[in-house]
């Protein structure tokens, strides 16, 4: 599984990079043969002003289907990544279940 990670408003450290990979592999690993790409965009919206401004946007591309997109915003970047990873895992499982029922 290839995960492209982009950071805006801060430097992408090894710790953040490893956390994103670990959480997404955990959430999406069992479905890895069903999608073509995973793109993660991490953003610090307010910069040094603080607040609920760390955003994690995860996009999963599936062949023949529209992209799945989940976003989580929190005060802590690691928590935002955790929320988005859990959400994208549930959304992908739900879509794949719907596809099996319709076939």
Question: How are helices and strands ordered from N to C?
Answer: EHEEEH
Shape: elongated
Main pleated-sheet profile:
4 strands, mixed
Strand content: 25-35%
**What share of the residues lie within helices?**
25-40%
User: Which spans of ≥5 residues are poorly predicted at pLDDT below 50?
Assistant: none
How many individual β-strands?
Answer: 4
Specify Rg, calculated over alpha carbons: 14 Å
> Order of strands across the widest beta sheet?
1-2-3-4
Mean pLDDT: 90
How far from one another are the termini?
26 Å
Structural class: alpha+beta
User: With helices defined by DSSP (H or I, 4 residues minimum), what is the helix count?
Assistant: 2
What does this molecule look like?
This protein is an alpha+beta fold. The protein contains 2 helices and 4 strands; from the N terminus they run βαβββα. Helix 1 runs parallel beside helix 2. The longest helix has 26 residues. The radius of gyration is 14 Å and the shape is elongated. The two termini are 26 Å apart.
Key attributes of the depicted protein:
about 100 residues; alpha+beta; 2 helices; single chain; 4-stranded mixed sheet; 4 strands
Fold topology:
Layout: E1 3-8, H1 14-28, E2 37-44, E3 54-61, E4 68-74, H2 77-102
Parallel strand pairs: 1-2
Antiparallel strand pairs: 2-3, 3-4
Helix pairs in contact: 1-2
């Amino acid at each position: 599984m290839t995960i492209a990670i982009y950071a805006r408003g801060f430097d992408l450290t090894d710790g953040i990079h490893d956390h994103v990979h670990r959480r997404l592999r955990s959430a999406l690993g069992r479905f890895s043969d069903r999608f073509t790409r995973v793109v993660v965009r991490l953003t610090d919206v307010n910069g040094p002003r603080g607040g609920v401004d760390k955003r994690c946007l995860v996009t999963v591309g599936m062949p023949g289907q529209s992209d799945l997109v989940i976003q989580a915003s929190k005060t802590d970047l690691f928590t935002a990544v955790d929320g988005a990873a859990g959400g994208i895992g549930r959304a992908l499982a739900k879509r794949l279940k719907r596809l099996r029922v319709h076939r």
